[in-house]
Amino acid sequence: MIRYSVVIPTWNEAPWLPRLLSLLTMCPDVGEIIVADNKSSDATALLASSFGCHVVPGGRPAVGRNAGARVAKGEVILFIDADAVLSAATFAKINTYFSSDQGVGIHFPLRPLGADRFATICYGVMDTYVRTLARLGISQGVGTFIAARRNAFEAIGGFREEIAAGEDADFIRRLSRVGPVLYDRTAVVYASARRFKIENCYVFAAKTIFWACLRLLGTSASIFQYRWASYPKEIAAFEDGEMNALLHRKLAREWV
Predict the structure, then answer these.
(1) What angle in degrees, to the nearest 10, is found between the helix axes of 117-135 and 201-216?
(2) What is the rounded CA–CA span in Å between residue 87 and residue 65?
(3) Of 33, 141, 149, 239, which sits most exposed with the smallest number of CB within 10 A?
(4) What is the pLDDT of residues 46-58, one digit of tens each?
C-alpha cells in the first residue's frame, strides 16, 4: 500500500524541479509523485516524466494541488512546491507524526535559499508569526510544504480555488478544524527566496502580510492578485551553489 503521495504544482519549473525530485526519489516512504503542470512552456513535464512522476493537468497552485490529490493513492498527501528541498530528517519527523492516529497535518519553518538580509528577516518574522499563532491555538502557514491525511483533506474539500492569494493559509486553518495540525520547529524545509528577486521586495513583503491578515480574519478576499511567475533560471543556478554546500555538509549524509 502506498503511504505517501507527493503532489507538486508546477509552471515552468524546469530549473528547480530536478533538485527536489532527486531527493524525493531517494525516500523509501514516497510511493508516488504527482506533478500537476499548468501548461509549462519549458521542459517541466518532460523532466517530471523522466523521474517517473505521474503528470496531470494543473492550473494555479490551489487548482494543481486539488488535481493531484484527486488521483493520489496514499493515505497521506505531501503538498510540496517545486522550489522546496526536504531532508531525510524532515521525513523522519513526518513518519513519527503520522504514526499516531491523532494528527491530521504537519508543516515546518522555512529556511530561504539565495536570500539577502531583508528576505532572511522576512522568513524569520513569518516563523515568529506562525509560532505565536500556534501557541494561541490558531493554525496558519504557507504552502511550500504541507502534509495532510487524505481523509482530512477530503473532509474539508481541499484547497479553495476561488481564493486568489493565501489559499494555503486558509487550507491549514480549515484543516485544523478536523484535527490537530502541528507546526514542528524541530525540522526545517528549505525554499527559494526567488520571489524577492523578481518584484519589489518591500511591496511583496507588505502584500504577504496583508494576505496573512485576511486569512487570519477568515475572509476569502485577496484585494491584490498574486501573479504566479516564471523565474529566471539564473536564480536557480545561484541557489544550487548554496544548496550543494548544504547537501555536502548535511543533507546528503542524512539520506545515506
Answers:
(1) 10
(2) 22
(3) 149
(4) 999 999 999 999 9
Query: Please, how many CA atoms are within 13 Å of residue 162, restricted to the half-sphere of its CB?
Result: 4
The structural domains of the chain, with segments of one domain joined by +, span 4-255
- pTM to 2 decimal places: 0.90
Integer Cα distance of 183 and 121 in angstroms: 19
Distance CA 91, CA 22 (A): 15
Which tens digits make up the pLDDT trace of 217-250?
777 777 767 777 778 788 887 777 776 666 555 5
4-255 to CATH, choices 3.90.550.10, 3.60.21.10, 3.30.428.10, 1.10.10.10: 3.90.550.10
**Which cell goes with 233?**
533560471
Helix axes 61-71, 167-175, angle to 10 degrees: 50
Q: What angle do CA 199, 114, 49 make, to 5 degrees?
A: 90
Contacts of 115 (CB under 8 A, 6+ apart): 123, 193, 196
Q: What cell numbers appear for 197 in the block? A: 528577486
